[in-house]
Amino acid sequence: MRRQRFICKSCESNSDGYGGGMYCERCYMEADKIKVQLMGENEELKDKIEFLKLCSPSPTTSSTTSLAGSFSDVVLIALDSEPPLPVQAHKAVLVNRSPVFRAMLENEEMEESRSGTVKIADVRYDALQAFVNYLYTAETCLNQNLACDLLILAEKYQVQHLKHYCQKFLVSKLNWDNALTTYTFACCHNAEDIMDAALEVITDNMDKLTTQLEYVNLVEKDPQLVIKIYETYLSKQVNTAACRNPSVRRDSSSGSGIGDGGGWSDGC
Ligand SMILES: [Zn+2]
């Protein structure tokens, strides 16, 4: 008996009829991929709306700088700029976007609450300005330096939406050359998504690890992070071995496990 043939509605090729007989396999898979991507984008938009929904003062202008400047009741100061430069903002926005600002600005015992001035050390003026703008708009144009600066601020002031945004950007920029420095940075600032992604890149290139200058620095400065790299690598090896050959177990004593030159990887 001959199988029924269909014409794909998208590319008009002969097909086996996927998606209720409408598409060829390739177009069907492609459409599926786009659907997943759109669902992801949709989720991101929902998060962004949630983030922005929190009680903003009504915008009187489309310019965020003048929005933040109009009737502002709090000033943030980047102490590292010379002279220290102020960024104007509204308490209502800061306390709604950040639990740390809430604790600081709603507590009359706090100097910041009384003076309406928040002094922030170790931050460039540009980064502070971008940070405040993000609290109003959930948007910023990132480069690697700015993403690092904003991630630090997002962690410090617990702005999860921004932290996630910066992590996603920095993960997208990961490569072998920057993996170790990015890993160290992520560990310092509790950025788990970046840590995992960087460890993935590092453990995929273990043969080159010790050739990196950063590796030598890391061994000296933070040996715990180096141990974490080797632990991740080992558990990855064990998992790979177990997938390829179910008889290989963590406690394998057959001599076909880790450390014998990888002989187990052949022929299974
Ligand atoms: Zn097709």
From TrEMBL:
SMART domains per UniProt: BTB (SM00225)
UniProt-annotated stretches for the region Disordered: 245-268
Residue intervals of the BTB domain: 72-144
Biological or metabolic pathway of the protein: Protein modification; protein ubiquitination
Biased composition (Gly residues): 256-268
SUPFAM superfamilies xref list: POZ domain
Highest taxon above the source species: Eukaryota
PANTHER family given in the database record: SPECKLE-TYPE POZ PROTEIN
Name listed for the protein in its UniProt record: BTB domain-containing protein
Source lineage: Eukaryota, Viridiplantae, Streptophyta, Embryophyta, Tracheophyta
